[in-house]
Amino acid sequence: MQTYRTAVKLCILNLLLAAAVPAHTEVPAQHPRQNQTQEKAEQQTRQYDWQVTSGSRRNVLLELYTSEGCSSCPPADAWLSRLQEHPQLFTRVVPVALHVTYWNYLGWRDPFAFKEYDRRHRRRAADARAGVYTPGMFAQGREWRGWRRQPETMTFPAAEEAGRLSARAAARQINVRFEPAAGISLQQPVVFLTYLGMDRSSRVAAGENAGRLLQHNFVAGRLHSARLRQADGIWQVMLDAPAPDPADAVALWVQDRNQPLVQAAGGYLN
Q1: What are the Cα distances from residue 29, in Å, to 34, 70, 253?
Q2: What is the pLDDT of residues 229-257, one digit of tens each?
């Protein structure tokens, strides 16, 4: 019996020693496909981690309503695209190109267009007592026809104090915060957010631009929006708005019931 117990103890001891991993033991290498999957997951996670913050003075939100089905739009698209070299990009001016669908009936379906931008264009035009046409440029919610006479190097002067608008993203959630400046009264502020595509191109096969290769920048994707809630003098909300792949930049702005623009912010994604 003593011999049997000794044998059992030795067996248990050997099992424990075999389970222990020495410090110099090498970890088996991952399969190349596993490495690629892990790297892709990390890239997708990094893509969603970004942060933008405005200054305290009100920025200029430039909304260009455009369409690949409109032969008058490429010059406006080119003008807006040149703002990517502007020294005040995203620090004083936030440009967005909103493609509309109402010219699709001419034979070409604009791949960047959303019906929600048709509705937004009509609301903007109605509020500004302007016509609905493309290209249509709005600055601070007001129709701006003078862009045609302005060089893309124009200076955007400092505006009045408005407050700081910031957004921080991690995974799918975006924490939006707005701290209004003194004297800024808000009633029902809403934040709008869209991701922007840069260096987009399209070979148009039909319609007014048939046969042309069109180049675009600041192309707005789907529009996300939510009402801000106030707590301790700060208006904020959590948005479920993950960045699409690909996405190059982000733009967001706050509107209120009687204010077409309270503040805007934007920036390139990390």
Answers
A1: 10, 56, 48
A2: 999 889 999 999 999 988 999 999 999 98
* Cα–Cα distance measured from residue 93 to residue 153, given in angstroms and rounded to the nearest whole number: 12
Question: Would you give the DSSP letter of residue 29?
Answer: P
Nearest to 217 by CA among 78, 120, 122, 87: 78
- H helices then E strands: how many in the chain? 4, 16
What is the side-by-side strand order in the sheet with 234-240?
A: 50-53, 163-170, 173-180, 234-240, 229-231
In single-letter form, the type of residue at position 82 comes to R
Instruction: Tell me the longest C-alpha to C-alpha distance in the chain.
Output: 104
| Cβ atoms < 10 Å from Cβ of 187 | 8
Q: What is the pTM of this model?
A: 0.82
At 144 the three-state DSSP class reads: coil
Q: What is the pLDDT of residues 88-123, one digit of tens each?
A: 999 999 999 999 999 999 999 999 999 999 999 999
Burial (CB < 10 A; 0-12, 13-18, 19+), residue 71, is middle
Query: Which amino acid is located at 94 in the chain?
Result: V
Q: Are 241 and 247 in contact (CB under 8 A)?
A: no
